[in-house]
User: What shape does this take?
Amino acid sequence: MILGGVAQHVQPARSTLYPSEGLYNMTSDSLVGSDIETADLRPLGPFEQSFHYYVLRNPTQLSVVGRLNAAVDEPRLRTALVDLQRIHPLLAAAVIDSDEGPPAFRHVARAIPLRVGKAESRWEDAAAEDQTRPINGAAGPLVRATSSLARRGRRSC
Assistant: This one.
């Protein structure tokens, strides 16, 4: 598995910023429905807070495009996305803003949403469409994925 292989070689940062060490030991099957779904990962830093409050008034997002040199089917892509959430806790987070303290990243037990486009889709069109759909930061996760079959059988994500 190409993305899974990438995910296996990326080591998560071990830090006191992530008190939910259990996230690192979770398997792909245990992410959804886990018992740490309400765990705070860490408070937002000053720059993250500024960006958070700006985005509340001015929805802002960006697209990152990648091209794979091998075909990846939808189930394998979904598994790789769950693996990435396990390795990188902020890919399985929402931003919680309460009166009890500063905004914080909180773990949510939701897989990264994946939209699979039509085979003839261009990545530019998929990115433009994604830009019209704001991500709900309070519901999480703070990322989504779109995949479409590109020219010469390569899959763009």
Notes: Helices lie at 2-9, 46-57, 74-87, 123-131. The two ends are 15 Å apart (CA to CA).
